[in-house]
Amino acid sequence: MTATPDLSDRIRAAVITYLDRIGTASSSQIAELYAIDATLEDPAGSPTRTGRAEITDFYRGLDNVDAHAELLTLRISGTTAAFHFRVTTNLPQATVVVEPIDVMTFDQTGHITSMRAIWSPADMTMTPS
Amino acid sequence: MTATPDLSDRIRAAVITYLDRIGTASSSQIAELYAIDATLEDPAGSPTRTGRAEITDFYRGLDNVDAHAELLTLRISGTTAAFHFRVTTNLPQATVVVEPIDVMTFDQTGHITSMRAIWSPADMTMTPS
What we know:
homodimer; globular; Nuclear Transport Factor 2, Chain: A; alpha+beta; eight-stranded mixed beta sheet; about 130 residues
């Protein structure tokens, strides 16, 4: 299926909202961006989480953390987005930076139907505070 | 499945070889990097090509073209690689640059089992010669 310009715009907006919510929203507000039966695999190769309850659970680790995300590169094609981004997490002892490439597919309403995050510990840097 | 360090190294080498062959090798030499029954979707959302004959056919357009590819960012996780790269094609009338994000999965021997390229015409630039 080829994306209409409308769907492409909707996907772009959803990615930007997603990255914004990583820094500012609760885990359930992040999970609301996903379709009801969506799947999440982060990092790719780890067990797949399915549905909003499991997906909310995944993001719970961000609920009490000072983190923010910046978009570096976004590509959209059909119903798929791939984007390179930077997540900076300020811990009491250190600042941790990771720059994954995420791959997401979307339904026609712009909800995420699947997410796979491609990164490894080698892509993280840690700077003591 | 989680990547062993060995498989991760093999995937990294395969991606680098792939980008190198885009500039220097024949379409069949590029197709040899794929598993026998691999799939290719470029751009994502277009019809899937399956097997080496169809994949060779896809790359035939590069056979007589002055092109080269540079890796910008590579992430590997499990059996999946995602990479942002730049392809520069020198045509008689113009230089065309496109910077897709490709997502590839690999078998244990380091052959590509699937490739999806995420990009759209908006990601291309053209400079008249």
